[in-house]
Design goal:
about 50% helix; Glutaredoxin; eight-stranded antiparallel beta sheet; alpha+beta; Immunoglobulin-like; 13 strands
Length: about 400
C-alpha cells in the first residue's frame, strides 16, 4: 500500500471512531434530554387543597411516579399513577393540613425508558396564606408582612419587635435568635380562619418558633400600637426560648413558665388577666398551679385564667427569688427535669409550700391597702391547706372527748 493509501486508511479509521463516539454520546445524552423535558408544578388554595403534578413526554411516560413531599423535617412518600403522561397527587388540607407559612420541598422519582431510576430537581415553596396580598418591610433579621395599614404603623411594629428581642435576650442572658418573620392579619376573624385547624381559634396571636414565624391580628386602628406592644413581645418570647433551649428543651418546659415569661415581657399587659385573677380569688376558683405544667385548657375562660395565673406566678418568682433563679429554672426544665423536682432543686421548696406562699403573696398584693384583711386571708389559706389534717386529728380525739364527757356526767 502506498503512502497515499495508508493516509486514506488512517483518515477512514479516525472518521469511524468519531462516528462511534458521536453515537455513544447521543445515547448517553438521550435519557438526560428526556429527563429535562419532565415538568413539575404545584398549586394550592390555603387551608383547602394542594395539588402536585409531574408531566412526562408522551413517548417516554412511565406507568407510575412517586412524590416525595418534605414538610418540616418529615418526608412523606406518595406513589402515584401516571395517566396520559401526567401524574397528580391532590392533598386535602382540611384533613392533612400544613402548618401556616412553613417551607415545603418536593421532588418526583420515576423510571426512564431504559429502566433507570431518575429524580426531578427539588422544588421549594413557602406555604403562605395566599388569600391576601401581603406587603413587606425588613430590617436586619426581622421581616414584617401586613395587609392593611400604613407603612408608618408597620415601621413601628419593626421597632417594637427589635426592642422586645433585645430586652428578652438581655434579661434571660441568651444569645441572639435567628431570623423572625411577622405576619400581621387585618382582623381577628382573618387570623382565626388561618388557625382554625389548630383548635385554638380564639387566640390573638400564634408563634411557630421552629420556623421563626409569628402570626398576629392587629387592625389598623387607634389601638394598634397598644396591641402590638402586648402581642409582639409575647410571641417573640416563644422564639427566644425555642432558640435557647432547642426543640427538645423547649418541649420539656412547663407551660406556666413559658406563658408566664411571655406575658411578663408584654409592654402593655392585658387588663383581662387582672380581672380574671381577681374574680378567681374572690370565688375561690384558682387553678392548682401544678396542673398548669401541661397545655392550657381550650375553653376561653379557663385558658384566660391559666395565662393570668402563670403571669402572676412568674412575677412572684421574680420578686421573691430574682431573675437568676428564674433562669436556673428555665435551664433545669430544659434539661428534662420534672416540674416538682425542678422547683425543689432550684428553689428549695415543694409545690404545696410554693403555691401556698404565692397565694399569700397574691392576697396581700390585691389587698395591700388593708393589712388586717390581708393577714386574715393568709391565715385562711393556711387553714384551708391544713384542713384535711385537722379533720384527721379531730377524728382521732373524738373518742377521748366523748369518754371525758361521760366521766364528767357520771360525777
Amino acid at each position: 500500500m502506498g503512502l497515499s493509501g495508508r493516509l486514506q486508511h488512517r483518515a477512514n479509521r479516525r472518521l469511524m471512531a468519531l462516528l462511534v463516539a458521536s453515537v455513544l454520546l447521543m445515547l448517553a445524552v438521550a435519557p438526560l434530554h428526556a429527563q429535562s423535558e419532565v415538568a413539575v408544578a404545584h398549586t394550592y388554595t390555603f387551608g383547602q387543597t394542594a395539588i402536585f403534578t409531574v408531566t412526562f413526554p408522551s413517548a417516554a411516560a412511565p406507568d407510575t411516579a412517586t412524590l416525595y413531599l418534605k414538610v418540616g423535617t418529615y418526608t412523606q412518600i406518595y406513589p402515584t399513577a401516571v395517566i396520559q403522561g401526567v401524574g397528580q397527587y391532590e392533598r386535602d388540607l382540611r384533613e392533612q393540613p400544613f402548618s401556616p407559612f412553613i417551607t415545603i420541598s418536593y421532588w418526583w422519582e420515576y423510571k426512564d425508558a431504559q429502566g433507570n431510576t431518575q429524580n426531578t430537581a427539588k422544588t421549594r415553596f413557602l406555604y403562605e396564606d395566599n388569600r391576601f396580598l401581603w406587603q413587606t418591610l425588613q430590617d436586619n433579621h426581622i421581616t414584617v408582612h401586613w395587609v392593611a395599614g400604613d407603612k408608618a404603623l408597620m415601621l413601628n411594629a419593626l421597632d417594637i419587635a427589635q426592642t422586645a428581642l433585645d430586652n428578652i435576650q438581655k434579661t434571660l442572658e441568651v444569645p441572639s435568635t435567628g431570623p423572625v418573620t411577622l405576619y400581621i392579619y387585618p382582623s381577628l376573624p382573618d387570623l382565626q380562619s388561618a388557625l382554625r385547624l389548630t383548635g385554638r381559634e380564639w387566640v390573638g396571636g400564634q408563634a411557630y418558633p421552629e420556623i421563626g414565624v409569628v402570626l398576629l391580628a392587629i387592625s389598623p386602628s387607634s389601638e394598634a400600637t397598644v396591641k402590638m406592644k402586648r402581642d409582639i413581645p409575647h410571641e417573640l418570647t416563644h422564639k427566644v426560648l425555642y432558640d435557647f433551649t432547642g426543640p427538645q428543651g423547649y418541649a420539656a418546659l412547663p407551660t406556666w413558665l413559658v406563658e408566664g415569661l411571655a406575658s411578663s415581657f408584654e409592654y402593655s399587659p392585658d387588663p383581662a388577666y387582672t380581672l380574671a385573677l381577681q374574680q378567681a380569688v374572690k370565688d375561690g376558683t384558682l387553678i392548682p398551679l401544678e396542673t398548669l405544667s401541661h397545655p392550657f385548657p381550650e375553653d376561653y375562660r379557663r385558658a384566660l385564667l391559666s395565662y393570668a395565673q402563670s403571669q402572676s406566678f412568674v412575677q412572684y418568682l421574680r420578686e421573691t427569688y430574682g431573675w437568676t433563679k428564674v433562669r436556673a429554672l428555665l435551664q433545669t426544665y430544659a434539661d428534662g427535669v420534672e416540674d416538682a423536682v425542678g422547683v425543689k432543686q432550684v428553689l428549695g421548696s415543694d409545690w404545696a409550700a410554693l403555691e401556698r406562699a404565692w397565694r399569700v403573696w397574691l392576697e396581700q398584693d390585691q389587698q395591700s391597702g388593708n393589712a388586717v384583711s390581708a393577714t386574715w386571708s393568709a391565715a385562711l389559706l393556711v387553714i384551708q391547706d391544713l384542713a384535711p389534717w385537722l379533720v384527721l386529728v379531730g377524728l382521732l380525739f373524738l373518742p377521748m372527748l366523748f369518754t371525758g364527757i361521760g366521766v364528767l356526767a357520771r360525777r
